[in-house]
Amino acid sequence: MNTNKNWKINLLNFTNESFINLTKIFKEKKFISKQLNTYIYKKDITNFEKIDNIKKKFIENLKKISEIRKLKIIKEYIDLDNTIKLVIKTEKNIIETVAIPNSKNHFTICISSQNGCALNCAFCSTGKNGFYGNLKPYEMISQIIMAKEKIKNIFEKKKITNVVLMGMGEPLLNLDNVLAFISILSNENALDINKKKITISTSGITNKIKKISENNIPLALSLHSTDNTIRSKIMPINKKYPLKSILNECKKYLSNSNTLTIEYILIKDLNDSDKDINNLIDLTKKLKCKICLIPFNTIPNSPFKSPNLEKIIAFQNKLKNNKIIVNIRKRRGENINAACGQLSGKINNKYDKN
Question: Which cofactors (predicted)?
């Protein structure tokens, strides 16, 4: 007999294919899989007793072997710009999720894919606190569900239109779980987020990019330098996956009619010179992509600083003058440590309201 109180299957881990297989096991009609998705994700039901349009016997049997269990929020912060940061307890540690307002009625959700991060990039807080393992699909889905609930409670009519895997962790090092999460997220009977509105960010795990291409998921490459020596200094993973191999995989990725964005954190006197601009121009001539410039966001015990606004705009304009699509990412949530590179998975009482 299994004495583990958490032995039950969590249905939030189930893709549509998993639900269909479940109905086969119980010898039920296939359409019940659609109904289960609807109850869980459209009607936000986590209590089996409230599922009233499916055979009672099937639900009773399902209840014996499964549960609908999401994670729990332990802290929440709201910035002056309406950015929301949720601090969430997982099975192994603490993660952070950010809901970013991107228009009057729309939010982008930035989710974490791992408990911490093993890559230890110099410009990011996440890796400074260690790595505690991969997140399961339900732990990623929980972030969306809880963000959705929080947005509804605070802003009523606002909704989630975009999801980016740019929070804590390297998504491509947890790819199987990430793809299962995206399958649930994009399922029209579940959360119904258009796959074109979902973006995976990677530091460049080259042997996994092909799988992203096959699934036609928009990709953002965290480049941050066009020089191998500098990139290896600020991103140690570059020693294993150097620029040439990454760019070759990106070319293959683009050949499958996919969308690529180059993310480039601007760090004063490190990667913001005219030479860096020219290298970026040469790179984008080889890759049909757009560039997102990200002014460095302050993190504890870092020697780095962001260039001033004048230099950032000049950097952008030089790229624009070469017919490159480029934007500057707006700083969102920096007052609550929710901006790019600031997620740490630690509770900071400095930002408590009370």
Answer: [4Fe-4S] cluster
Q: Which helix (H) or strand (E) holds 62?
A: helix 56-65
CATH of 72-351, one of 3.20.20.70, 3.30.470.20, 3.90.550.10, 3.30.530.20: 3.20.20.70
Give the pLDDT confidence of 189-238 residue by residue, as tens digits: 999 999 999 999 999 999 999 999 999 999 999 999 999 999 999 999 99
CATH number of the domain located at residue range(s) 9-67 in this protein: 1.10.150.530
Structural domain spans, the chain: 9-67, 72-351
Rounded Cα gap, residues 215 and 175, in angstroms: 12
Cβ 109 vs Cβ 164: under 8 Å: yes
**Angle subtended at Cα 107 by Cα 101 and Cα 113, rounded to the nearest 5 degrees:** 110
Q: Which residues contact 108 (CB under 8 A, 6 or more apart)?
A: 99, 100, 102, 160, 161, 162, 163, 164
Whole-number Å distance between alpha carbons of 89 and 74: 7
Burial 325-341 (b: 16+ CB within 10 A, else e): ebebeeebbbebbbbbb
**Integer angstrom CA distances of residue 29 from 21, 189, 285:** 11, 16, 53
Q: How far apart are CA 200 and CA 213, in angstroms?
A: 11
Alpha-carbon gap, residue 278 to 318, rounded angstroms = 9
Following CA atoms 239, 242, 243, 246 in sequence, which dihedral angle do they give, to the nearest 10 degrees? -130
The residues annotated as belonging to the active site are 96, 340
